[in-house]
């Protein structure tokens, strides 16, 4: 399987680079990701649940960064095992190019799958991979651009204008923080 795409990120390159190297942020943005744990220099163990057609499995794998050239590019080598569902492995070349106040992120992925997943057919595999990538970039763009935080601020301001402080005891900052936590939970669980 091969997949190439360019995404426009509404932030400068240094912010995009920092976000791409933040494991917790990536865990929140990768569909089905349960954990990302350090496993040596520039390497992580991952656990995620993914569905390809009728096959749904929990995959455990490793991701390692290679050819790191901050803040321009790196290569991600990955492999994962999903038990009876099969395996996946490959490489992804990621590069960032400044474009005014924004960044163009370009990636090229080459991957192989085996087991039950490989029997499903390349069209379903490609469609599932594109859907995961699209979901990741929607989430990633929202996080790095701060669009959720801006929406929370507007919602908190609207609530304060309409009803004042909740129970008369909390401050606007506490209300805003509570809203941010709730919106993150809802946002992370979006399909």
Summed up:
By secondary structure, the protein is an alpha+beta fold. The chain has one domain: Alpha-D-Glucose-1,6-Bisphosphate, Chain A, domain 4 (2-Layer Sandwich), CATH 3.30.530.20. It is built from six helices and seven strands; from the N terminus they run βααββββββαααα.
What's the topology here?
Elements: E1 2-9, H1 13-20, H2 23-29, E2 33-38, E3 43-52, E4 55-69, E5 73-81, E6 87-99, E7 102-114, H3 116-120, H4 122-145, H5 147-163, H6 172-188
Antiparallel strand pairs: 1-7, 2-3, 3-4, 4-5, 5-6, 6-7
Helix pairs in contact: 2-4, 5-6
Describe this structure as you would to a colleague.
The protein is 41% helix and 39% strand. With 191 residues, it is an alpha+beta fold. It has a 7-stranded antiparallel sheet. The chain has one domain (2-145): 2-Layer Sandwich (Alpha-D-Glucose-1,6-Bisphosphate, Chain A, domain 4). The model is unreliable at 149-191 (pLDDT under 50). InterPro entries: CO_DH_gsu, START-like_dom_sf. This is Carbon monoxide dehydrogenase. It comes from Cupriavidus pampae. Residues 148-191 are annotated as: Disordered. Pfam families: COXG.
For the record, give the distance between the C-alpha atoms at the N and C termini, rounded to a whole number: 23 Å
* Secondary structure category: alpha+beta
CATH architecture: 2-Layer Sandwich
Strand sequence of the main sheet, in spatial order? Answer: 1-7-6-5-4-3-2
Number of E strands: 7
Q: What is the highest CATH level, the class?
A: Alpha Beta
Please give the count of helices: 6
Helix percent reads: 40-55%
Please tell me the overall pLDDT: 82
* Gyration radius, rounded: 19 Å
What sequence of helices (H) and strands (E) makes up the elements?
EHHEEEEEEHHHH
Pfam families: COXG
InterPro entries: CO_DH_gsu, START-like_dom_sf
Protein name: Carbon monoxide dehydrogenase
Region (Disordered): 148-191
